[in-house]
Amino acid sequence: MSESLVITAESVAKTYRLWPEPAARLKRPLLAGAARLFPAGSGTRAKLEASAAACFRDFRALEPLTFQVRRGEALGIIGRNGSGKSTLLQLIAGILQPSHGAIATHGRISALLELGSGFNPDFTGRENVYLNGAILGLSHADMERLFPSIAQFADIGDFIDEPVKTYSSGMMMRLAFAVAVSVQPDVLIVDEALSVGDVFFTQKCFDRIREILAAGATLIFVSHDMAAVQNLCSRCLLLHNGRLIHDGAPEECVARYFSLHRGAASEHAVAGTHQTVNTAARSAALAHDLLAGAKSRIGDREFEFVAGAVFDAHGTPATEFELQQQARIHLLLRAKTAVRRPSVGLQVHDRMNNLVFAAGTPQLRFDLPALAAGQEILLEFRLTWSVQPGVYTLSFDAAEFDADNPNVGHFHDRVGGVGPFTISHHAPGALPFYGIAKLPMEISYA
């Protein structure tokens, strides 16, 4: 393995043999043994072999997949429940062995998988800390040195000397994470554990993960929190039904993830309420279209963006704005097929590609009519740049809304990395705020 590679997977697959009942485990070898008593090709042998094969069925939890992870990478793994994420993590961690292919790892792996995994419920928190250290190959002296920082990070007080079986799920996660990040791992694996616990500890966890990444460690991060995946990870794997269907930028993987679930939109033509598209505004959007310079674009384009243009409050095309100035974003869309419940949204990203803000027609309570094939709509989003001075990009989504799963829907067209837009602060006498974005706030004497 190259020194820069910490994980190499070659055609790795995992198959589980499922038995309908415990007796089938005994029945199968008996039938297989009886079949061998008869000559090959005989009808009796064939029947017995068929009966033996019917005693079980194979379930392929993970289809063959190949990938590599380099030192210092932050790799996200996403997919719906049952897609094979946890199976892949257990293969990487060495908890499971592949049925096919090979997986090689380099360096110390610290895995935070199922909540409480690796903990003995009858041992105290302190005893489990030392036990986990021994499992990871650390000496008792090493753990003596690390224990104060682990206890301080977990911050569970006197419960550190109580049996783990008395812990709440949040306390369990605190201690498990404190151990995982304190043993100086080369590879840190986190599987949904951060969904448990209070917001303050979660923030502390993300800060520590960033410190570990900055020190050159590798992160394997699994979560259904797509914002966290895009914020932490530089690369992503998308799994679906045990198959690797995309390996690439987190934004593209997330877009494909959402598109795996298509809402119950009608496949037949719908008679939408036709909105008249302003001819002059349409021409202006086409003339000043910024979509051609977008960094990414995916989707089936059945409901697509034709043009996207950004103007200032006076209607002048602009990519530079003063803090608190308004941008008017014109989006021209066309339905190639009938769209029953169209939805359009935009996202604002900062220079580090952190999501600053996102909203769309559902959140703004702006119901769009059903669209017939060939119909166009032209929308104007009015956005006030209440953000820190800096450089930002916009992304746009054209989707079909699903009321039961408002964050899932079916994304037909996702355009990412439109811009950049520079936000400046030159107004005399006014001070910029601190933080990512400005929230509405007033002050008075109580």
Defining key terms:
446 residues, alpha/beta, six-stranded mixed beta sheet, 18 strands, globular
Query: How many helices?
Result: 10
| Strand order in the largest sheet | 5-6-7-3-8-9
Shape: globular
Number of DSSP-assigned strands: 18
**Radius of gyration, whole Å:** 27 Å
Largest sheet: 6 strands, mixed
Helical content, roughly?
25-40%
Structural class: alpha/beta
Identify low-pLDDT runs.
262-273
Q: Please report the distance between the alpha carbons of the first and last residues.
A: 66 Å
How are helices and strands ordered from N to C?
A: EHHEEHEEHHHEHEHEEHHEEEEEEEEE
Strand content: 25-35%
Instruction: Give me the oligomer status.
Output: single chain
Question: Can you give the mean pLDDT?
Answer: 86
Topology record:
Layout: E1 5-18, H1 23-35, H2 43-53, E2 57-70, E3 74-78, H3 85-93, E4 100-105, E5 109-112, H4 125-135, H5 140-154, H6 169-182, E6 187-191, H7 199-214, E7 218-222, H8 226-232, E8 235-240, E9 243-248, H9 250-259, H10 279-287, E10 296-298, E11 303-312, E12 320-322, E13 326-335, E14 342-349, E15 355-360, E16 376-384, E17 390-400, E18 410-424
Parallel strand pairs: 3-7, 3-8, 5-6, 6-7, 12-18
Antiparallel strand pairs: 1-2, 1-4, 8-9, 10-18, 11-13, 13-16, 14-15, 14-17, 17-18
